[in-house]
Amino acid sequence: MVSSPSRWSKAAVFAAILIGAVAGSGAAAENATLVLSTGMIAPWSNSDGTGFHQILVRDVFARTGVQAKVDVNLAAARAFHLADDGVTDGLAGRVAGMEKEFPNLVRVPEPMFFNDFVACTAGPPPPQRWDELTSHGVAYIIGWQIFERNLPTVRDLAVAKDAAQLVGLLRIGRTEVILHERWQALWQAKAMNQAIKCGETPLARVPMYLYLNRRHEGLVDKVAVELRRMKDDGSYQALAERVFGGLGASVTGVK
Questions:
Q1: Domain, as residue range, for 35
Q2: Secondary structure of the chain: what % helix, strand, coil (to 5)?
Q3: pLDDT at 104
Q4: Could you tell me the pLDDT band of residue 253, with boundaries at 50, 70 and 90?
Q5: What is the DSSP letter of 157?
Q6: Same domain assignment for residues 33 and 141
Q7: CA–CA gap between residue 130 and residue 148 (Å, rounded)
Q8: CA 165 to CA 139: how far, in whole Å?
Q9: Does the residue 98 lie in any domain?
Q10: Angle CA(254)–CA(220)–CA(228) in degrees, nearest 5?
Q11: Predicted pLDDT at 248
């Protein structure tokens, strides 16, 4: 019995379409842009995609041959779960130890940057140790556990809902000292045309990391290597000066 040529041609066409679809989906997955999230706002991230996190992630992943970007998600718990579930590809600018609670997250071992938590004033020399805060009126953003856990009893305590309100308390004299992350404090003060001085010595210094969902585990060591190379070849420092240079004199502490 001779098979119908038309029947075989239809089968061949179907097979070709199927193979092409599978190959195409694999290529699409391979070439897809990885999406990481951060909870840190300007100057670490912004709507233009020119924040420190956004540029650093783009550049360090590009060195591994992968496209990546950073979106902002201020809901920390949701961001963690989305990355752990694989809805997003990872996290940027998070403390060590997240993998203990979220087992599908793998931490890139090289620190992404160091977070300086500082005291800032409207002019007088700012306190640079926790115990120096006790005689002052102090304010910080509600929910920031680094301050809630470490702040001693102070003369007067106020809390703010965000950075703008925090700097506003300093402007109107409602408080003498505000506690914040160095570069967000300086950026917000500049945006509000408010002169502030932040302690050069931080109250606390915390290494911050990149995390990837476990399905990208093969990239972890590659990203760590390229991040170290960026620090060694000067491109990391150049980025820090580009993003933070107009905000204050010190940018050396970022790495």
A1: 28-114+207-254
A2: 45, 20, 35
A3: 98
A4: low
A5: E
A6: no
A7: 12
A8: 10
A9: yes
A10: 35
A11: 77
